[in-house]
Amino acid sequence: MTFEDLKLAEPLLRAVKAEGYTTPTPIQTQAIPHVLEGRDVLGCAQTGTGKTAAFTLPILQRLSVGRPPPPARGRPIRALVLSPTRELAAQIGDSVRAYGRYTGITSAVIFGGVGQNAQEQALRNGVDILVATPGRLLDLMQQGFVSYKALEVFVLDEADRMLDMGFIHDVKRVIAALPKKRQTLFFSATMPPEIQGLANSILTNPVRVEVAPVATTAETIDQRLYFVEKEQKRGLLVHLLQTDRDIQRVLVFTRTKHGANRVAKQLEAAGIGAEPIHGNKSQNARERALAAFKSGACRVLVATDIAARGIDIDGITHVINFDLPNIPETYVHRIGRTGRAGAAGIALSFCDTEERAYLKDIERTIRRRVPVVEAHPHRSGQAAPAPTSLEPAPSRGQQSQPGGGTMVRARPQPNPGQGRGEQRGPGDGGGRRRRGGRGGRGGNAGGPRSAESARPARNDRPAGQQTQSGQRPPAAAPAAPPAVSQRPRAPKWL
Q: Deepest in the core among 33, 43, 62, 470, taking most CB within 10 A?
């Protein structure tokens, strides 16, 4: 099938050809006809499958073909695209401009971390398509700069990432302000119960488009596993980068912002070009790091999960999980940065003793065992764990109870050191006071403490005064419920 077969208008076909594309991807083949018909769409596809063009192209056609041109100034917002991260919002904005270059459709991208004066001016002038992150969009809505009276299409992209980053309540506030009569396009790489519930609440008779099983990894990605103790991980990383010349452009994921900084500094000390990128970096610093990585000026980009969905760079040869994620779906998102659009890629994962339970959950989720690399100089002294069943574990939202009942379990905590203060980053909420923190832009304000800075709970009462006379002794602790998952709990932040 070709793009001509999808009945796209000539200006769009010309733009697609100018971008170098000739054959649509499976998600584009399935989604574009339904979007052109005005249907609501529920799209479930891995990252790197071309879903940005799957909604961008038909939206541009619906807003431009066979309709009178809108006024030069004061254009109403006719399509809203909501994205979880600044990087992803910027890339969607680039796609809208590239594909819409011959249509006369205008667009704007708004996110935090930068001044809002230019964004205010763009909204005053009027835009047809607005791409935004939730925090800054809510700020501008509250200040009266945003009107949805003429809105026709709403796109929620990377919905599961919104949930993981703690933005789901902001998303619901935005949705509540939209007109009820609209077309809604809902895209998510995974479909946990919470996201399925949100989709059911905002979609009307949707067409489901799915090009790969939920939470599976691309077949073109060669996955490998290294058992290594925590204190040896940096040595193993330097060893691999110095000895394997096939690692040309690599994305390294760490669990915390401080960890990303430390890894990047050690690589630089070893003569390996590296840049860190995370939520504590200013927008300008993040853009400089991405530009250096894209141009090849730096070989390694060390990132936290803020970038797991926001980086779309061609030619990433390797992804390295310096720290295994404690949420299995995050593993899928991370390694999806390589092997994109059918290209080959390699994902290397370091697993220390404390992360072996995470590994079991990851292998159950992707329904395959990750091959272990035995021969390396930093191999763990502990024996490799015995293979476990690959049968899917109970869903994150539900656990079975004895007697056949169902218990709803709280969602796993975000990765240590990456709460709202990490994912939103400085200014991403437009300077709004962050819930659960002291607010402000510096350090880790508004987010939980990182794993390095977490302190044990205090008990200042002397041992002999733990129970005062006249007080009832503490009741016996109830019997513990049966264990369901061996995944370690994320730290309880103070």
A: 43
